[in-house]
């Protein structure tokens, strides 16, 4: 359970990283659309786990590796943006968020189920009548 301080810091990082990827991402990562879906911050605010979702990316794993290689640059850009609001700029650890793909897969599975209709109840049947 995150405390309010962690939640507030997570929202700040999510907002600023989203802006960084939107404005500066095209120069570094091409035409891929990068979304920061979730940020989890450690209790000491020293480490931030960032979950990313990609659209229009030819290879999500290669793009994630490219982002991980440029972590120092991204952290520096984040530091420039939040330096007056945070005492410590957290270490950034990036992960691929596969929630959307999982939801789409589950939706496909559920829509493919063949569920027969429920049998009609007989009003004269006393099977479930109270005794």
TrEMBL record:
Query: Where is it found, in Gene Ontology cellular component terms?
Result: cytosol
- Keyword annotations from UniProtKB, A to Z: Cytoplasm, Ribosome biogenesis
The answer to whether the entry has keyword Cytoplasm is: yes
Which GO molecular function, any one, fits this protein according to its record? ribosomal small subunit binding
Q: Which Pfam families match?
A: RBFA (PF02033)
Mention one GO biological process in which this protein takes part, according to its record: maturation of SSU-rRNA
Q: Where in the cell is it found?
A: Cytoplasm
**Entry function:** One of several proteins that assist in the late maturation steps of the functional core of the 30S ribosomal subunit. Associates with free 30S ribosomal subunits (but not with 30S subunits that are part of 70S ribosomes or polysomes). Required for efficient processing of 16S rRNA. May interact with the 5'-terminal helix region of 16S rRNA.
Subunit structure, interactors included: Monomer. Binds 30S ribosomal subunits, but not 50S ribosomal subunits or 70S ribosomes.
Family per similarity comment: Belongs to the RbfA family.
What is the protein name stated in its UniProt record?
Answer: Ribosome-binding factor A
**Species the sequence originates in:** uncultured Cytophagales bacterium
The lineage is: Bacteria, Pseudomonadati, Bacteroidota, Sphingobacteriia, Sphingobacteriales
